[in-house]
Amino acid sequence: MRGLNYRVMSRRTSGLKRKIRFDGSDKQFFSKLMRRKAQSVEWLKSHRQHAWWNNGNLREMPLSTMEDANLAIIWEKFTRFEEKLNIVSDHKLLREFLWFSLVSSPNAVICRPYYSISSVRPDTLNKFLSTGLDTLRLYREMISFRSQLCNVLCAHTLRVYACALAKILPPLAESFVHTERLLRSDHKVTLLELWMDNEAEFMNVRYIYYNVHARVTTAWNQTPHYMQAHNLIQVLLHEIQEASNSSRISMITSLLVRCLSVYFESVDVLLSEGRLYDPCNEFFLISTMDNEIVHRPQLSSSVESNEFLTSFYEETASCANDFILVDKLNKLIELESCIENKGTMYAEFVQILNKKFRASDSQDQDNEQNTRFQLDTHYAVDTTLRSTILHLVRTRKHIVSCFIKRQLLQSYNLFLHFTVLCRVLLIDTEYPYLTVYKYILHSMESELGWRNEFHLTHLLEECLDSEFPHFSSHFSISLEDREVTSPHTLEFIDLITINFKIELPVDLVLTSDCMIKYNMIFRFILKIKWALSLVQNLHFKVPQ
């Protein structure tokens, strides 16, 4: 059989240079090979839509003994190779890191894998670089916030915050500059040293950004100015209570004090001049239609959650209303006199009523002569309007006067002011102030150098220091610079004036006219005291 096959095949391939010899083992080999090829084709047909072909990923790799079916394993093997780890020097890495600290990149900075230094592991280096570069990004963003506000209309408190923020952040930049100088001088500085020296600064930058800056600048250009300022103050007040160490408390306190300086300026103008100073519309107080100072209703819900802001807003509004009412007290007196003399308010009120009457009269032209009348000549209407307006003004004046009197007595020691004035200008004999006036009278009679204002003022201050130390510096004695007709003591007394420095709002009660009258009484009493001293010093001799 073997020879037959050979002869048949050799007869068929007699024209070929190469002859193939078949035996039983060769036939089995080719049969097995064909079966494997057929199985491979069938396996590929049934598995060609596997997830690996579509998604490039397999949870469980299919196993097969056929070589053609192991394409996925071969692909994954050659695409998931590990790159060789490259070791770089600390000097090169530090120079590149410092360069990124000075350059602002619009894109996110990504650390290259398979790079490390000899002192730390790759994952530790990657963690440090990612944290450090992200901190530098936050640092540059906070520094550049000041320049963003240059061409934008925003609250003045926010500008002050940006300036204060730029002043408390430079320690990190100064440390980088110092490290750069060391590198240029070939000083051996490692990455670990840079991290240890600036770890606290890195943490403070991240703390300021995430706890303060990010909350303050959230949609800041889409909110009103008063909300920007209030949100800033509220965030700083909250963080100053939650800060965990002294350095963070110091930074937050510095920011808070600088931001509150804008509020203090408005409060100072309000309480010293009695007017609302709010050029950027960011103050927490507003003036109503009734000229009453109240805090903004939009801030009510957020203010109630903070005890400090609640008391601060309420006390400021209360003091502002007190000062405004005190400032209006003299204006009410002028208003009352204008009404009594048919002044401006009365004339305007009459004009408004005349317009209303004319408008109603035009609707009925037939009865025009019977319904039209002038308020100025109609006695009953004129009297009614006058009495009504006077009643309203006097009622409000009485309310304001009682309120102002109570405030002046309780808050500004008005009674103490009058007590001091009475004892000094009315020359109470039970107090040591009489010694000053005795010295003045004695100097006048002896015609010594008594015309020394500073010496007389000093004597009066020494007498007041024992009982009224807070008022001693408010008094001074001035002498009128004019020639007297005769060297008589009464002429000299008319030259003396006691000055009393009075501050707002007490000066609205103790006006300059009041002080002139007080000095007239003082000079009159001093003349009486001089006359009494002359009578007491009289000595009569009995004629012998």
From TrEMBL:
Family membership: Belongs to the TUBGCP family.
GO MF: gamma-tubulin binding; microtubule minus-end binding
Any one of the GO CC terms: gamma-tubulin complex
Every Gamma tubulin complex component protein N-terminal domain range: 114-289
Keyword Cytoplasm recorded: yes
Protein known as: Gamma-tubulin complex component
Keywords: Cytoplasm, Cytoskeleton, Microtubule
Cellular compartment(s): Cytoplasm, Cytoskeleton, Microtubule organizing center
UniProt source species: Cacopsylla melanoneura
Transmembrane regions: none
UniProt GO BP: cytoplasmic microtubule organization; meiotic cell cycle; microtubule nucleation; mitotic cell cycle; spindle assembly
Domain of life: Eukaryota
Domain (Gamma tubulin complex component C-terminal): residue spans on this chain: 451-537
KW Protease (keyword) present: no
